User: Fold this.
Amino acid sequence: MGRTLEESSSSDLPEVAAAAAELERSRVHRRTLKVVVFGQVLGGAGLAAGITVGALLAEQMLGTNGLAGLPIGLFTLGSALAAYLVGGISQRSGRRVGLALGFAVGGIGALGVVLAAVIDSIPLLFVALFVYGAGSATNLQARYAGADLATPSTRGSAISVALVSTTLGAVAGPNLVTPLGSLATHFGLPALAGPFLLAAVAYGAAGAVLFVLLRPDPLLLARRLEQERVIAEITDDPAPPDLSTEPPADAVIVAGERPGRGAHVGATVMVLTQITMVAIMTMTPVHMREHHRDLGDVGMVIGLHIAAMYLPSPLTGLLVDRLGRTVMAVASGGVLLAAGVTAAAAPGDSLGLTIVALVLLGLGWNFGLIAGTALVVDATEPANRSSTQGRIDVLVALAGASGGVLSGVVVAASDFPTLALGGGLLSLLLLPALWWARRRS
Assistant:
């Protein structure tokens, strides 16, 4: 005998409820990605200012290139503290509040850099660059917001959407160096302060967009979905979760396990790619200026470098999902080595080879960041995800700070080719980490 209508309907309820919940999760996820894209376009413009002219401004104010890597070191050191704080705030109050505050603080730091340049204050410059680093940390933390509601098989692609959206602002920023410098001069400000004016406006706007539009909060929602999934398994309750309202920040959290081994491997990949990329990138503008390249050439090279950092993200995310995290992490080491060798071998006045080297540098970083981020997300749960990600981004930022500060010291003690080759070789250290993780698995 077949089942009665009542029996059939009752037994199908869990499947129907699960399908409805999945459709709603997917809808909220798509909306979240749109908001993150909007915020990241603005945040990318703010990010580009320090990368493009930070070292040049320090060289101008300090009168030496031996400390030209200090600005990158300071704002990446500031980003380390900001990553920890943004991660902690997001853990307690959600992505919306954490990201908005991070961008707002970064904008304040950018205004401080402008003021330091106007009054020629080295101490204020150092403090302002440190605070400005909050914007850089927040820009990177936003990639996690794109993955909070993604399924395991689409996390690489979700992360890539958040990263590629940074491209528009980040590429436009360096290419606006000359007109922004002219605008700053028109208002009686130093030319190199112009890009930081853009950063202040861009970071402030990014924070406002995320605070107003990132509803419901993706991290809090992912946490509640996990909680309701566990409760449904225990009680066999087929009722679908309500995703239409903003989840409370103090909602009960499902007890999660400690992050898995993949989080440590992902952190290692991101740390090594960051220190290599920052070290070579930091001294490239100084190296180019020493060979009589103007700010337009510097802006073009850095713009193309940043494009390579973010623009390939959709393809990289697809490859990370299809080929695997480990394969793309290994590819990252190979591309970064090629970048270092090319930069070291390029004649000082060769604009073409410098572009090739910096594009490869950005591409290798892109591979490593997306593969490493996917490893971290895979190894964490909504209950421990944000705080773990914040601590890992602290390590990534500290690696960048070390690379930025030491790059100027290395070049002052030897030369730029030595720095470039050393950075490329350093990236290969991720291979033993991946081999160890594979053996342990």
